Amino acid sequence: MNPQHPEPRKIRRAVEALLAGEVIGYPTDTVYGLGCDIASKKAIDRLYQIKGMDRSHPLAFICPDLSEIARYASVDNQIYRVLRRFLPGPYCFVLEATKEVPRILQTKRKTIGIRVPNHEVVTAVVRELGRPIISTTAQRSGAEPHVDAHEIDDDFKGLGLVIDAGAGGLVPTTVVDLTVSPPLIIREGAGPVDDFVEEAPRSLRDVRAAMQELKKEMRD
After folding, report:
1. How many domains is the chain partitioned into structurally?
2. Residue 113 belongs to a domain with what CATH number?
């Protein structure tokens, strides 16, 4: 599929697979993902099974734009300003879940992860579907993410289809918890974290600086 100008008939084929309860593979602005329709409990169960994940493993929502987020997450003015600044982009923001979120997808803290990728293909799929895709990275625990769509098809048996839009990335999203103040960086990935670290306690900044120094020493 053309990554900049996805063909409508191919987008429709992917959406038909989602509506049929299938799990699909698709590109994002970071690594390839695996996902399914939020409205299908059977598909969500299948997603956990195909990836071999524990049921406690959190999944993210992929939304087409900011307007859809408020339906599934509690967004005040301050959080909205953060989302508007960093999305679409390589971030997953942890937010408080609303009652619209199926219980099976909520963590014990009743939070969810929200993504708005900067990628035309997955955005077109979600927009055509009319509701979010439940998403996880296309990688096995402890392994690197798959770059080639054919590798995803070979590794994860039972997928409805895999959208091939060229080579994927190797660095996953940056995950930031916005339910706490200051924001907590859960995973540092493709999205820069400097703006969030500046608001964090000095102890956290010191830890990050020490980690960067350690990485430099290891390279040297």
Report:
1. 1
2. 3.90.870.10
Q: What is the DSSP letter of 180?
A: S
The string of DSSP letters for 136-155 reads: EES--TTSPPP-SHHHHHHH
Residues 6+ apart with CB under 8 A from 92: 60, 113, 114, 115, 173, 174, 175, 176
% of residues, the chain, pLDDT over 90: 75
Is pLDDT of 118 > 80? yes
Q: What pLDDT does residue 207 have? A: 47
Token pair for 49: 């099974």
196, 205 in Cβ contact below 8 A? Answer: no
Residue with tokens 């010191």: 206
The whole-number pLDDT of residue 147 equals 93
Q: Could you tell me if residue 13 is inside a domain?
A: yes
Cα distances (Å, whole numbers) of residue 156 to 1, 41, 66: 20, 19, 31
Q: Give yes or no for residue 201 having a pLDDT over 50.
A: no
Question: Is 196 a member of any domain?
Answer: no
For residue 53, pLDDT over 60 is answered with: yes
Q: Write down the pTM of the prediction.
A: 0.86
Q: How far is CA 143 from the centre of its chain?
A: 17
Domain containing residue 66: 8-191
95: closest CA among 183, 188, 177, 185? 177
In a domain, 207, yes or no: no
Helix (H) or strand (E) holding 18: helix 8-19
Residues 160/22, Cβ–Cβ less than 8 Å? yes
- Does residue 36 lie in a domain region? yes
